[in-house]
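Hi support team,

I'm opening this ticket because the web form for multi-chain structure prediction keeps timing out on my end. I have pasted the exact lines I submitted so you can reproduce it. The total is 880 residues across three entries, so I didn't expect it to be a heavy job. Is there a limit I'm missing, or should I split the entries? Thanks in advance, R.K.
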Amino acid sequence: MGSSERATFNNKVVSWIDERLPVFTLMQKEYGVFPTPRNFNYFWNFGAIAMFMLIAMIATGIFLAMNYTAHVDMAFDSVERIDRDVNWGWLLRDIHMNGASFFFIAVYIHIFRGLYYGSYKKPREILWILGVVIFLLMMATAFMGYVLPWGQMSYWGATVITNLFSAIPLVGDGIVKWLWGGFAVDNPTLNRFFALHYLLPFVIFAVVFLHVWALHVSGSNNPTGIEPKGKQDTLPFHPYYTMKDTFGLLVYLVIFCAFVFYAPDYLGHPDNYREANALVTPAHIVPEWYFLPFYAMLRAITFDVGIPGTDIVFISAKLGGVIAMFGSIALLFVLPWLDTHPIRSARYRPQFRLFLMIFLAAFVVLGYVGSQPADAALAGVPLQVIGLLGTAYYYAFFLVVLPWLNKTEKGKDVPKSIYDAVMAAEGKKK
Amino acid sequence: MTMKRFALSLAAAAVLAPAAAAIAKEAHDVPPPHMHWHFSGMFGTYDKAALQRGYKVYREVCASCHSMKQMSFRNLEGLGYDESQIKAIAAEYTVEDGPNDEGDMFERPGRPSDRFPAPFANAKAAAFANNGAAPPDLSLIVKARHHGPDYVYGILTGYEEPPADAHLQPGQNWNKYMPGHVIAMAKPLSDGQVAYEDESPATVDQYARDVVQFLTWAGDPYMETRKRTGAKAIMFLLVFAGIMYAVKRKIWASVH
Amino acid sequence: MTAGSKSQAGIVTGQVGHSADDGATRRDFLFLTAGSFGAVGAGIAAWPLVHSMNPAKDTLALSTTEVDISKIEKGQSITVMWQGKPVFVRHRTEDEIDQARKVDLSALGDKQEDTARVKKDREAWLVVVGICTHLGCVPVGQKPSESRGDFGGWFCPCHGSHYDTSGRIRKGPAPKNLAVPPYEFLSDTLIKIG
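Hello R.K., no limit was hit. The queue was backed up. Here is the completed structure from your submission:
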């Protein structure tokens, strides 16, 4: 890390430290004068917001862990004790449980922005892949965190999701027992989930570091999708974007606080205020909202794949669902090689934009399907069918639409430079 | 920008989806009456007199079957009782303590730090004494049900004669608002059952309202603090955001 | 909640100067206000985290212990737990009280009158925290079978500190007398420690 050229500092202490450990030079280079496209819109706030949420989750989580007891007989009551007796415990827990949702909201918007403006394309493939890794780690962390209060949804969610692995041929049952450390979700499971729930955020933090490192190698994408060509296209990160990010973050926090203080349980499920009971399954098991679209894909596959008219089955419905769900994330990893269209931004690709918006709609519909009982219907159409259609479109978008657009979409004229685009927009306003 | 429109519809969908889900979920059953509660809304608070009446109903009626294991007598401070009143209430109960120096468990009068005593020794005893259906703990009952306050009020006031075509087993009862209508709990409240010390009517409706308020408080004792803190936090953030908006504009003024 | 913004706002106050003459003071004031809000916000947000480590309400509810002393015969002691620590309650005989009173203060390492260690008119009752002031062991002498040391009080087996019938250190490495916890008599037979 650049020890070659150091910045100069007026403050003697700063300068003394920097000569020995150039952290200030690093900060100055990466966050001070770092050349950043001048035309970011507010969608570019969500990286910083997600970073803030990660830190808030770690901070509240550490203090919650000090008061939490990872034992099946005591976990539920220890969470209640945090709510009732620990000083400000209710606040820490409300921030932590709603923080998970708001972390995901920020990250979903961040991902969508990447999709919309083609931020995954060359030379940002590794940046994108690291982001998908963060997303996966977040899902694992959130899932295990949801188990810790040891309510009914904790227990049955854990049971259902760990049972997914039993779909793997031959070794599936062994893997599930290994995950549980027993013959059902029980105390060993709770203990290891707690250990991992504490560990993974720091792993996320490390991957975020790599993600930001990769970002600072390629530089940020921007709404035009054109690379900056000179000084007139960029601004120093500080103060322009530090101040803009802070403003955006504060607005986000207002919405966050509305949930934390006025509707702390809105995003949760009432069943999780019933203590886990291995003998009573809730009428309708639903994961947290941020998993719903993936849950819908899991349930969408209700048929075996095999040779029709015989008993030969290659992929059982159960395994099919698991493949559909995990495959949907696997597709994100290879996205940079599925969409190789030379124009990045959806601004100049109307056809891509249309299909991407349908994709977004399909994702939201899948979320709705995932929230409903398996046998429900919407306007007479069984949700099973809608879920299958949504899943089909999700896959088709990546595997059919994108490669097809690579060949056929011409796109609109792209401005010569970021500066030109900005000036054209300014001109229109006046 | 089109992005803005998309963002708005996305946000709308995100807010509406769970609400739509909740509606669909309860479509088969009669939804409980939608009540106005003293504690609902941004500025809602608990009505202390109602809390005290509700606690009386709980003690004299519900507590014979339902535990409230998260609650301690000291928590009654939230109902407006002072230290000596709480001591007196706690002392009315006998709690098991021990073991003493001889290794025996012994009984002593309750103290403020003691939990509410449970009516049954454990869940199995509770189930055995109640035809196999253990009465649920009430500490979190309001939080543990969709539309908790309305739900509990509905159950308490929803007992009816079963329709002619209903086949109830012995020990089963008919309740309009119970999902599936069949409920193990017999009608718990009747007019005049609990003698109120104030002027409030001694009716099932009033009992149900008061006990709902008490149970809501029990599940969420810091609601008032939470809302007050929230108002301060949001005010602070709004002002700070305003200042940052001004800062951002100042800084960007030279660019635009 | 605003920890992230603090450092950023802090930097800007020093650095931004678009050398426009008019409005420079107003701008500085704005930046300073923003920085202060960031700092104050971060401080306020940190407090719940810090305060969550202080004793919780259920812990505080057990911070006092009421002891029924009606069954303690003269010459006997009982041990009760208070805030997780053993407290010795001894019903002293007249001899023991005399012994404690007779001692010349100059013979003591930690000079304290017996009258300062008991409640007025309740001289028979000595209440001390049963933790040796040397290195925190629990002294013996509560049970008739145990040694009460050379001065009839308590004896710490860890490093041989001897306490007298007022709980004062008389011999051995302990620097201070056994601590007297805050307590009060609620009635003739009931004391409240804490």
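A quick check on our side: The CA atoms of residues 141 and 148 of chain B lie 7 Å apart. Let us know if the file doesn't open in your viewer.
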